[in-house]
Amino acid sequence: MAFLQKLVFLLTLLSCLVGLGSAAPLRARPRDPPPPAITPVPLRLTAQQDSFNFDLSTTLVLPTSTMQPLQTVPPHCAMYNSLQSECPTSFEAVNVTYDDCGDAWTVCRCSTANMTMDTAVERLGRIPVGLRRYVATVVVAPDTQTHAYTLTSGDIHMFGDTQVDSWVHEAGHAYDWATGSPLSGTPEWQKAIDSDTCVPDTYSATSAGEDFAQMTVMKVYSLIHENSLPEGWSLDCMSHQMDYMNGLPVFNKAELFGNTCAIAGSDPSSRHSTPPPVTPTRVQPDFPAQVQPNSPLKSGLAAVEDKGEKTPTNKDSAALSTYITDVKSVLFAGGAVLGWLMW
Ligand SMILES: *[C@@H]1O[C@H](CO)[C@@H](O)[C@H](O)[C@H]1NC(C)=O
Ligand SMILES: *[C@@H]1O[C@H](CO)[C@@H](O)[C@H](O)[C@H]1NC(C)=O
């Protein structure tokens, strides 16, 4: 009799675990971003500035686009639609086709999101196509604070009112992780960091991965500003990190702004590579270099208003750490069952 009760309990518990198995890690702590793919190790380098005070929204060209509403919200968006999750109301999903690519980007927007669908489509479109092709699905959700994170799948989740530099930052993460083995985890990137004395800003110092994403923003900026950095930043103390960026194929300027996501010799990890029916002839304009102050590390010029809304709190995420969380809960439940059976 006691054994039967225990068996029923065991089966109930198992069925709970099976039910939780697929979604539990994401719903367990819904307001938190998924766990980082790699435990972030802060960099012991000086931040040149507190945060980024420049925006790329008026300088990066905007491709034209068409939106096709989707009848059903894709599962990897729908799973974030619950009272406790990222979207408490409902998602609207569209496929956006930009004139520079033959296949669409799926954007899921929560009905209460701060950014409108048009805003999200515009900001996504301003990410240079050579980098944008690594972005998978975009989720746009509401929050009192502006932040974002990128999953190792290339999916990007945006909260609040993320500016274009943050979109480029997240695309940098998607590119970093595109092959499943992050560039920011390579000995070469670590060597570049170790050879320098500074990082772009406070957020860059969070980890090698965040530094990679912020350097991506810096590199994109420099490519359209005669290879210069924004006012208030110096190359001297982070030249090895920039050299590493310079060597990445994605930053070949002709391809990055080449008006097509079908890049010759394209690496297979790009998520959008179908050529557009007609390749646009748009030209990404060049802007003049900024005047560099004499003492870039303490220029004082950085005291330009920082509303705090531009400081991204981006997080990586990976199935790996999710998996570990899962194993832990299974072990915990297993222990509880064992205790019960032996009691
Ligand atoms: C929407 O875009 C995604 C990603 O390109 C694609 O896989 C999917 O088939 C598209 N859906 C429709 C209905 O066109
Ligand atoms: C987003 O919108 C909500 C509701 O209007 C508002 O309370 C919140 O402050 C907004 N978030 C940001 C980052 O502006």
UniProtKB/TrEMBL annotation:
Residues 304-313 have a biased composition (Basic and acidic residues). SUPFAM superfamilies: Metalloproteases ('zincins'), catalytic domain. Keywords: Signal. Residues 288-315 are annotated as: Disordered. It comes from the Eukaryota. Residues 1-23 form the signal peptide. This is Expressed protein.
